Amino acid sequence: MFNPKLYNTPYHTTDLYKFKFLVTGGAGFIGSNIVEYLIKYNAGHVRVLDNLSNGYFENIKDFMGLPNFEFILGDIRNLETCKKAVEGMDFVSHQAALGSVPRSIADPITSNDVNVKGFLNMLTVVKDAPNIKQMVYAASSSTYGDSPTLPKVEGNEGNPLSPYAVTKLVNELYADVYSKVYGLHAIGLRYFNVFGPKQNPNNPYAAVIPIFCKAFIEGKQPTINGDGLTSRDFTFVENAVQANIKAMLIGVEESLEVRELGGLNTSNQQTSKPTNVINPNPLQKHEVFNMACGDQVTLNEMIDILNQLSGQQIKPIYGPERKGDVKHSKASIDKISNFLNYEPLFRFQKGLEIVFEWYNEQFSY
Ligand SMILES: NC(=O)c1ccc[n+]([C@@H]2O[C@H](COP(=O)([O-])OP(=O)(O)OC[C@H]3O[C@@H](n4cnc5c(N)ncnc54)[C@H](O)[C@@H]3O)[C@@H](O)[C@H]2O)c1
After folding, report:
1. CB of residue 138 inside a 6 A radius of ligand 1
2. Cβ of residue 359 lying under 6 Å from some atom of ligand 1
3. d(CA 320, CA 227)
4. Å from CA of 54 to ligand 1 middle
């Protein structure tokens, strides 16, 4: 049920048993990892809303039947479904969206429907839900668009380069307006190329790390779009989970004092102390944070590491650059470190080792 390599560091200091969490998109890659953390640490209730359009029941099937887990098969484009999903909840981690720049270029209408209309539905039901203390949502590094500045710093964005980037920018604009007009508490996490277990390599719009891992396991040459010098701030999924947990709980963990944890629902008992110590600076009702490692890794460097890990000497095939992609990306993580006490405990190489091993074990794919 739990990956023994993951979530052995608690990122919360309060007892999760007291709280109910909604994770939209909880059958997807990042959402199901958030669910794994919440269940591992005995959250009072974890509800997933997902229409399985891009997620997998497989990602949550181990949690089905647990008394504190609930799955709603439904669509965020339906306002009534969203209303039911937030009923009784304390926190929302909104991950449901259609990811992928190429998908949005192929079908901008559907990406807009899910990512903008669905997002607005969620904001609207959250603002009307009396118990919800914080909504954390998946924003995106694509919001930096054509800005050439590195590292990417919040407040210094360029123009979007794809329909997907437009949808994620619109999310931030709506969340900001809802915080000003209705007093909604929301935090957007601008993810920078997240990778890790439960990310599917077989999806037509799969991301580069799952595709490359699969190619290496099959002993095939992966195709690189461009010259391989394209760089990204690849971020292991446990860092994204840490950021979600800290962002959701920031209002209830304002104390600088580090408290003892509640019970841990695993035989792999913890001894490590929680790492949360919250910066006392005031946060606005709506904030966006980069969520990354602050590193820059090229695709060629990734190929070198995969060759080391697999004991092979595979050379990639170089193809044309992809439309809508930016050449380089690297985040400043100063803001999230200062305000949420976020620390990327899993750097690129360690994360790649874990996920490569996971794909090797999984390959019933
Ligand atoms: N993975 C990354 O590197 C990355 C980078 C930037 C932003 N993001 C954002 O993070 C979030 C999670 O990404 P992910 O990589 O886990 O993607 P994912 O596709 O694995 O997860 C998204 C989940 O949302 C569900 N979903 C899609 N449309 C829905 C709808 N209409 N109603 C209900 N559920 C729906 C899918 O079935 C899926 O389970 C997304 O919002 C994505 O845009 C991801």
Report:
1. yes
2. no
3. 8
4. 7
Q: How is the chain split into domains, by residue range?
A: 16-195+233-294+330-347
Question: Against a cut of 0.90, is the pTM above it?
Answer: yes
DSSP H helical segments within the chain, as ranges?
A: 29-40, 79-86, 101-106, 108-112, 118-127, 163-182, 208-217, 237-249, 299-310, 334-340, 348-362
CB neighbour class for 165 (10 Å; exposed up to 12, middle 13-18, buried from 19): buried
- Tens of pLDDT, residue by residue over 284-308, are 999 999 999 999 999 999 999 999 9
CA dihedral 283→284→286→288, nearest 10 degrees, is -50
Q: Per-residue pLDDT tens for 224-265?
A: 999 999 999 999 999 999 999 999 999 998 643 333 333 334
Could you tell which of 51, 61, 95, 103 is best to mutate to test the pocket of ligand 1, judged by most ligand atoms within 8 Å of the CB?
95
Superfamily of domain 16-195+233-294+330-347: NAD(P)-binding Rossmann-like Domain (3.40.50.720)
The answer to whether the CB of 51 is under 6 A from ligand 1 is yes
Q: Report, as an integer, the average pLDDT of 138-147.
A: 95
- What residues act catalytically? 164
Q: How far apart are the CA of 193 and the centre of ligand 1, in A? A: 12
Residues in the chain: 365
